[in-house]
Amino acid sequence: MGRMRELVVATTNKKKKKELVELLRGTGVDIITLDEFQASPRVREDKKTFRGNAVKKAVVISKFTNRLALAEDSGLEVMAMGGLPGVRSARFAGPSKNDAANIKKLLGMLQGVAGSKRKARFVCFAALADKGRLIKAVSGTVEGVISLEPKGRFGFGYDPVFYYPPLKKTFAQISASRKNRISHRFKALRKIKRILREDP
Q1: Cross-strand pairs, 130
Q2: Residue 30 a catalytic site member
Q3: Strand-pair category, 30-33 with 6-9
Q4: Residue 85 DSSP symbol
Q5: DSSP label at residue 150
Q6: Which end of the chain has fewer beta carbons closer than 10 Å to its terminal beta carbon, N or C?
Q7: How far apart are CA 116 and CA 125, in angstroms?
Q8: What does each C-alpha distance from 41 to 10, 19, 87, 100, 153 come to in angstroms?
């Protein structure tokens, strides 16, 4: 990684971007986003795994920007649905990527499925690359249960239906700062922070 101090975060999702910036505080790098580059490439997330998508994005963006780049791919896996929606989490209900539509489809598919059979987990893979070379890919998960209906006004994506038993609340019922201490993204980014601190 050399002495590069700028880190490009490869996302255009504003809510995710804000969360990532918060999670990476204290790493000693200047965090910039793809918005700051003209004609930045749109990387197709066409891999079959979260890791594959994260690595592809990090490598392509780091090569394009000639900088250290961080990319992540994350989503929801529901056990009763064989791991769906998985890598298709953001576009589960179609290419419009509408959170409400995704949740409606998810709850519809789980009708009649009760209790512990509604177990699910959020998964995040984060990849760090420099000038087109992969440095490291790490992961983080958090276990929960899909609630019967959406609850809460915080967060994004599937947060309103992801019930977290230790807090007896959905992810959308807890503040961003609290979520950022327990989430799958927090667990993955904590590992990335260690890498950045070890080699500034």
Answers
A1: 68, 133
A2: no
A3: parallel
A4: B
A5: -
A6: C
A7: 25
A8: 10, 22, 20, 28, 33
Q: What is the pLDDT along the chain (200 residues), one digit of tens a residue?
A: 444 478 888 876 677 777 777 788 777 788 888 877 777 777 888 889 999 999 999 999 999 989 899 999 999 999 999 999 999 998 899 887 689 999 999 999 999 998 889 999 999 999 999 999 999 999 999 999 999 999 999 988 999 999 999 999 999 999 988 998 999 999 999 999 988 887 64
- Whether omega before 41 lies within 30 degrees of 0, making that bond cis, reads no
Which residue matches tokens 């000693």? 28
CB-CB contact of 189 with 126 (8 Å): yes
User: Could you say which of 30, 73, 130, 159 is catalytic?
Assistant: 73
pTM: 0.87
